Amino acid sequence: MRNVQVPLGDRSYAIKVGGGLLSRLGLVCARLRLGPRCAVITDSNVGKHFAKAALKSLAASGFEAVLITVPAGEKSKCLAVVEDCHDQLAAQRLERKSFIVALGGGVVGDLAGFVAATYLRGIPFVQVPTTLLAQVDSSVGGKTGVNLKAGKNLVGAFYQPQLVLCDLDTLKTLPKREYVSGLAEVVKYGVICDPILFAQLERSLPKLLQRDVPTLRSVVARCCEIKADVVGQDETESGLRAILNFGHTIGHAIENSSGYGKFLHGEAVSIGQVAAARLSQKILGLPSGDAGRIEKLFVQAGLPVKIKLDAARRKKLFAAMKLDKKVSGGEIKFVLAKKIGQVVWGQKVPSGMIDEILG
Ligand code: NAD
Ligand code: GLY
Fold first, then answer.
1. How do strand 2-6 and strand 13-18 relate by DSSP bridges?
2. Which residues line ligand 1 (CB under 6 A)?
3. Whose CA is nearest to atom 3 of ligand 2?
4. What ligand 2 atom has the least distance to the C-alpha of 137?
5. Atom of ligand 2 nearest to the CA of 227
6. What are the structural domains, with CATH classification, of the chain?
7. Which of 92, 130, 145, 272 would bridge 251 by S-S if both were Cys, CB 3.0 to 4.6 A apart?
């Protein structure tokens, strides 16, 4: 097992990465002196595979746990489901000392984290991420929240978990498309911070695609180290944390303008990262060899790197880019790469250039 620490003073916490960890959920919660009652919030897919094991482990360590299952999918990330979870917690008489376990992908993590942040003005919670995206990204760093009709993640709170438990064995049941989509965020860490990780990904992609646990342990732990380091320096995204959005300016706009669900997050972010690499070549002189390696890695992972755009879709994409909540004063700003492993944020890019590189 690998242990990564998120350094946030008295709100610091551990990320545990390894195989077979779900059976130790109760033990690690007991060590954190949580309890004695909790609610496991999961979704209808994840619950079928892992709710029993989570509840068994919690019971074996003396916790009294109730199960709350929400429908799988992005639609559950909404205020109506938050209210329903609050009502169930209140009906079960969960108290200030009770805690929540978020068992699932990014949807469950964001939702359950926000429920924990708001029930009784905040009770502790533990993240048990079961998608690759959630293990390397959404479960770490304390961004919780839900969507409004007006857009994604518009209501939320920075609220850190007590612990993140990444059981790599849970990834075995993840549909292939979801797993591959998570690889886009993995590659991102290499591009933004770590050329050695990037080269490791190039070498060990076949093993990663087979979901080989030792390879995953090293790669997921390294991604978590990078995220922990960034969050430790800039928890609320006043500067540095923006580098985690490499590829996301165009990626979010693709998701939004094509109707959520057509592209998975990682698929859109793969196209966005390749586009950001091309912009980086033009603006920061990213060597063409580096841009080529980035594109090749995504292609070999089985991720899309281009989007076909007719005039109407192009217009929608630009409108979505301007709506992004990271736009300030109407100006679209990008994270761009100088070389693999080094990026800068807040880069202004002329619309004409974005239009040109999208082809
Ligand atoms: P998800 O939670 O919807 O999971 C994807 C699908 O896989 C779902 O159908 C789910 O039921 C299923 N699933 C999950 N784990 C499984 C497993 N082990 N076996 C079988 N099926 C499984 O999607 P996601 O990609 O994990 O997360 C996307 C969400 O994360 C978005 O809402 C996004 O906004 C959010 N996000 C948040 C942050 C953050 O910092 N908080 C960062 C990135 C993304
Ligand atoms: N997923 C980007 C962040 O956590 O800041």
1. antiparallel
2. 43, 45-46, 49, 72-74, 77, 104-108, 110, 130-131, 133-134, 137-138, 141, 143, 152-153, 170-171, 173-174, 178, 265
3. 244
4. 1
5. 4
6. 2-173 (3.40.50.1970), 176-358 (1.20.1090.10)
7. 272
pLDDT digit string (tens) for the chain, length 359 residues: 999 999 999 999 999 999 999 999 999 999 999 989 999 999 999 999 999 999 999 999 999 999 999 999 999 999 999 999 999 999 999 999 999 999 999 999 999 999 999 999 999 999 999 999 999 999 999 999 999 988 889 999 999 999 999 999 999 999 999 999 999 999 999 999 999 999 999 999 999 999 999 999 999 999 999 999 999 999 999 999 999 999 999 999 999 898 867 899 999 999 999 999 999 999 999 999 999 999 999 999 999 999 998 899 999 999 888 876 566 666 688 999 999 999 999 999 988 899 999 98
Tokens of 348: 């202004």
C-beta separation of 38 from 116 below 8 A: no
CA of 73 to the centre of ligand 1 (A): 8
Instruction: Please name the residues in contact with 297: beta carbons below 8 A apart, sequence gap of 6 or more.
Output: 187, 198, 201, 202, 205
Q: Where are the beta strands (DSSP E) in the chain?
A: 2-6, 13-18, 37-43, 64-70, 99-104, 125-129, 143-148, 151-158, 163-167, 333-339, 342-348
Tokens (6 digits) for 316: 């929608």
Active site residues: 121, 143, 185, 227, 237, 241, 245, 248, 252, 265
Pick the atom of ligand 2 nearest to 143's CA.
Answer: 4
Task: Report CA(50)–ligand 1 centroid distance (Å).
Answer: 15
